[in-house]
């Protein structure tokens, strides 16, 4: 992690994944990566549910017999976001994290994965520092909050 920090990677862009029996006591909890897809799934559910609720509310406004107001459309969007967050979080809690799924063999072999969530120029700059520190880059490309 120090090699990534010295290459200019922000602390918020770093996390760790390791086997559960490996001691990571010196690492703060916010740096330890979760075992499930709970938070990303909840965020996707909130966005999708909110959009679906908003569309349903706007359609209901367009149909005069329903008599829904603009405030009602907002309430439907909020309800959609809540239902989407709840249902997606439940599903995400049971699905292993995508990085953990892809590199399960590495994790079970006792390796600690340092995950860097940054844009491409930052990753390229950090790669030389990580290699010099003895890290082996593993290929993983996915869209994230940072990219």
Task: Explain what the structure shows.
- The protein is mainly alpha-helical and 147 residues long.
- The chain has two domains: 2-35 and 99-132, no CATH class; 38-94, no CATH class.
- The protein contains six helices and two strands; from the N terminus they run H-E-H-H-H-H-E-H.
- It has helices at 2-6, 38-62, 70-94, 98-102, 104-108, 120-132; strands spanning 14-17, 113-116.
- It has a two-stranded antiparallel sheet with strand order 1-2.
- Helix 2 (38-62) runs antiparallel to helix 3.
- It starts with a helix and ends in a 15-residue tail after the last helix.
- The model has no long low-confidence stretch (mean pLDDT 75).
- InterPro entries: Low_temp-induced_all0457.
- This is DUF1269 domain-containing protein.
- Keywords: Membrane, Transmembrane, Transmembrane helix.
- The chain crosses the membrane at residues 41-63, 69-93.
How would you describe this structure in keywords?
single chain, 147 residues, 6 helices, 2 strands, elongated, transmembrane, transmembrane helix, Low_temp-induced_all0457, membrane
The structural domain count equals 2
Mean pLDDT: 75
Name the helix and strand elements from N-terminus to C-terminus, one letter apiece.
HEHHHHEH
Alpha-carbon distance between the two ends: 20 Å
The strand line-up of the biggest sheet is 1-2
Low-confidence stretches: none
Strand proportion, as a percent range, falls in 5-15%
Number of strands: 2
By DSSP (H or I, 4+ residues per run), the number of helices equals: 6
Q: Structural class per helix/strand content?
A: mainly alpha
- Rg, alpha carbons: 21 Å
Q: How would the global form be characterised? A: elongated
Question: Tell me about the biggest sheet?
Answer: 2 strands, antiparallel
Give the % helix: 40-55%
Protein name: DUF1269 domain-containing protein
Keywords: Membrane, Transmembrane, Transmembrane helix
